[in-house]
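Q: I'm writing a short explainer about Glycerate kinase for a general audience and would like to include a description of its predicted shape. Could you first generate the structure from this sequence?
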Amino acid sequence: MRALIAFDKFKDALSAEAACEVAARVLRHTHPDWELDLCPLTDGGESFGEILTKAAHGRLDCHAVTGPMGATVRAPIGFVDAAKLPPPVRSRLALAPAERIAVIGMASASGLELVPPDRRNPWRTTTRGTGELIGHARDAGASVIVLGVGGSATNDLGLGALAALGWLFDREPLPENWPHLRRIGGGACLPRIIIACDVVNPLLGAHGATATFGPQKGLKPADVPCLDAEMARVAALLCAAAGQPFTATETPGAGAAGGIACGLMVAAGATLTPGFELVSDWLGLADRIAAADLVITGEGRFDATSLAGKGPGSLVREARRQGKTAHVFAGSLGITADGFHHAITPAGLPLPEALARCPELLAEAVARTCGLCDSRLAAAERTP
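A: Of course. Here's the predicted structure. Afterward I'll give you a sentence or two in plain language.
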């Protein structure tokens, strides 16, 4: 029996790598004869750079950069030779074999996980650290930068990143200063930037960055119209400074990560690529599913959004397309539980306790379920 173990993170509880290890420890104990293939997943947020760099046998360098609240944080850049990437990735990203790729996860420098819940406020958070990482990658000779933009704490249009890269502003470009911002100038010579992104939101409006994601980052609902209006005004200044049309703000995905996608597209010519499709090609998921008898996946919450292009949902869809049994374990379910979708948290357990006990709860759920998996699969193999 061969099991593919491919978890995304359990937010505030377990990293993707740790979740995979919890399940693997259970299976090594209960089924020591099984072959296990551990494949941590990423949606472009936490651990994006680490997971992709490790998979391509690259090198991680850590740098001290500006965190989302201004304090210094340590964040990695992965360096990978294009020749070591699977051909579908080189084709998708239009890479020459000799190119040197830098892989950056925005969450490591500008992520929500770096801000305590009681201090989350997108009026005051900055992407400067992400820009500093891009600058370090440029200075190290990267010809292409792959940027994962999930898990951000920011809503600053990427202006903090642009400031770190040489763009000039007559005010520190934090959103709280935008009402006084009047002039933008300068520019930066940068490598090609490819943004891995599954968000299709435009920059502005009811489905834009501020309205859709701002409240998740601590924005008061009453402040949404004001910040969105300032975003529109400042985006117009940036488009004019870069010589780009304001219609760039309407591009699907421009609203990703508080608008950094729009800022980098306008000011640095960045392009977007579907995030999970890139990750799937990079990790060789289709082939790893094909080689497995059983797929085990999950994340902190599995709901309708998981089925709309996110990692575990896409993994399950591909597994079922290939006729493979797939089980999902989640801290909570936003869909009906069945024999293949499992909520690991007991009803009524307070969230803080559930988060603290997440490794234990996941291990117990995998142990309960995989005895049934084993018997069902064995029965299927005996069926003529």
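A: For your explainer, you could say: The chain has 14 helices and 13 strands.
Q: Perfect, that's easy to follow.
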